[in-house]
Amino acid sequence: MPRRERLEDRIKALSQHWDVMRPEGPGPHPLVIQLPGCGGKKPFQQTWAQVAKTNGAAALIIDSHKHRGITQMGAYAGVCTGLRLRGAERAGDLIAALEWAKRQDWVNPSRIYAAGWSHGGWTILDALCIGDKIERYTGLRDAAANVMDGLAAAFILYPYAGIGSLTHVRPAACKPAISAIVCGDDKIVGSRSPLRVFERLRTQGLNVSVAFFENGTHAFDEMDARDIRVRPDKALVARAHALYAAFLSARL
After folding, report:
1. Average pLDDT of the chain, as a whole number
2. CATH of the domain at 196
3. How far apart are CA 241 and CA 229, in angstroms?
4. Kind and range of the H or E element at 178?
5. Vertex 236: Cα angle to 235 and 237 (nearest 5)
6. Is 149 a domain residue?
7. Is residue 1 part of a domain?
8. Domain count of the chain?
9. pTM for the model
């Protein structure tokens, strides 16, 4: 069961460890809330944040582990195996970041987006389906039922969408536009489940576009990955960055 806490306490805990990268000028700027994979916040997230900044958007990189006392070893043993901090629970971090962002005078409140990698993609997809069951799934006691309506769009890469995902049992309660990357050689989360979920979301009225990287593996954009199932690919990274830039530019 997720730990029960006030929204303000979650915001305070997260803000001790998140990173913010802003374009020049006072704004208001579009903002992308970046949700890393199950292994936690890694250096390559800064590269994606730089793409956002270059295209006129600020980036907020969430660390969901430190305030929960999850070490990197603990993340691989517990979070990556689904034993703790599943997507629906972690959705509370996205909700907290959304609420914080709407209060910042340098953020354009109508242009707040989320980007999620693997577990972060799972988190975004589950967040869309929580609806008015926020406390049940995230532990947040006092978040507004419509808080997810503040999410204008999402960019999702190689998400987990298998057993335990809310998208299999609940329809989307909010419907931002989604751009996604699914990898054909993904030996960690596969491609069939994500593709089925994105098709299901289309039938529910969401605008979903999917780029299929046929030869891409899970975490192809993590150049220093040590997992033998991961094959870093600079050409695919360039292609993915271009899709991210187009995703942002279309919404500036």
Report:
1. 95
2. 3.40.50.1820
3. 22
4. strand 177-183
5. 90
6. yes
7. no
8. 1
9. 0.97
